[in-house]
Design brief:
The complex is a heterodimer of chains A (443) and B (173). Chain A is 34% helix and 20% strand. In chain A, strand 11 and strand 12 form a beta hairpin. In chain A, helix 5 runs parallel beside helix 6. Chain B has 173 residues and is mostly helical. Chain B has two domains: 118 residues; 33 residues, no CATH class. In chain B, helix 1 packs across helix 3 and helix 4 packs antiparallel against helix 5. Classes of the chains: A alpha/beta (443), B mainly alpha (173). The interface between A and B is medium-sized, with 14 and 13 residues. Strand 16 of chain A pairs antiparallel with strand 2 of chain B, so a sheet runs across the interface.
Chain lengths: 443, 173
Amino acid sequence: MNPSAPASGLSRRRFLSGSASAALALAAGPPLFSIGTGTGVEKPLRLAVIGFGAQGRVLVEALLKVPDVRIVALCDIWDYARVYGERLLKSNGLEVASYRDIEELLAKEKDLDAAIVATPDVFHAPVTNACLRAGLHVYCEKMMSNSVEGARSMVRTMRETGRLLQIGHQRRSNPRYLVARDRLLGEARLTGRITAAQAQWNRAVSADLGWPKKAAIPADVLAHYGYPDMHTFRNWRWFKKFGGGPLSDLGAHQIDIFNWFLGRLPATVVASGGSDYYKNHEWFDNAMVVYEFPLAEGTARAFYQVQTTTSSGGGYFEQFMGAEGTLRMSENPSLTTIYREAHAPSWEEWVQKNYLRANAAPAPEPGAKVDARETAALATYRLPVVTNKAIHQYHLENFFQAIRGRTKLNCPADEAFHSEYAIFKAIEAVETRQLVTIDEPVV
Amino acid sequence: MTVPQTSAVSFSGPTLAFLSLRLWLGLRALIAGVEKFSARVTIQEPLLGADGAPDPSGAIVEIEKKVYGLSHYHALPDTLTTKFAEEPLLPALLTRPFFAALGPVLLLLGLLLLFGIATRWTLFAMGALYTVLTIGLMLIGQDAGVSWLAVHIGLVALALTLADQNRLTLTRA
């Protein structure tokens, strides 16, 4: 599939027709998606994994732990990755059909139920759209695309085909995040009025990815898929034709949490970023973004930063700061903390409900306060929710349960598009150096 | 239960003082022994909503609970065990059997004292046990613990001086 090909050639008439079909299909209810045998014995869902790079491997490792699914086909343009995948799956008792090209896979594999798409961003839209049109349900990694149009086409194709399209914002299925959003912020309103939010992902300097020289893809094959050379193929995240840069790769997860937890898109964004360290990358290596969220109780400002040249500053987290407390979430439980302001009402009720655990108060350090205006140190709590599965497994399981008609998708493409729109706008703000207004995205 | 000396039991001030000491020292040893079979363990349970049903997120929460059992036996906190192991005057040959017996011995002494069985010898054995513990704590520099045990030994000594006032016992001694 050529990355320069248009993501969708959908006409208004086809879209309306497709939307009507999708609406009818959804109205028909769960049996449309149920492929259970009805005997209590689950027929395994047959899956194709498309794209077996670093993220594809992460997803496959999680898939191998999910019951009642079976990977039957694997697709990647790199022979080296494909052979590695075949061996990995064989060592787990799975013989798979292996393909270089997605069109060939879809032409030959006629009994697939779903596709897991983990290609470079630029291929997400064309590959996903092709899979949906072939009748497959699709789990596609985020970002949906490296262009708004690409992402929009995926939503349209989902609606047109009536198939399910889950986007890989996996925090939305993580029980820790669900409890934080629905119980701590929703039911308990621990933070009080939220006035600010902050998130970041800071990573240390890393070398560009290499490849075994013997395993290099022939130049004509690279050119067929739009790559000028092997370095670009291996480091596609840094190139604008293929990916969206760090705000897209890392920020997408966390800015999505801003939008999901605060329940709406921001109204405006200002940002600054630049390619100041790496000399052979197109995308900026650092960015600082400020959104304004006009919430019902008043405006909240959200600061996001991504750094790929330092791991300092506390790692990666999303933090919601209110008048009575602060919720700092991270996929890493050790980086998750809830802070209670001294004047806040007692949280004992929520401790008794197992929503929180109080940490032991640190002994006060004599002379620690150097300015009379300093606020007293905050009491800290931890989230007692544990995750016993790989972080992507919950989201994949939600996808499979939705295919079987037992639940709704936690991140359907239309919701993901709505949220990712704010990320596209942040990238626009970095590039234009202007305050950018974020209107409601139209599909 | 044997009522010694006379058929009429008299409860003078010194008698009540002794019984108070016997009760305190007995319970102290018994509970100290029981606690050596306790542990705080973390268990995982579904998070429940207000209606008692599992949270829709499927969240599992860790809950810390105190439990008792033979498998949880520990003579001393880990920090003290490490310090004892590092003390050259306390070879493992001596400390290992001592620590293995400490919990059961405290339970036994506590029960003997509460039921009034061989009260004088029980008190003496208790004093000896606390003295041995004190030696260990002196060697590893736990001055607060030494002071704490000194209070215990003082109470044991006071109880022995009042032992003639013993009443409500199962044996005469």
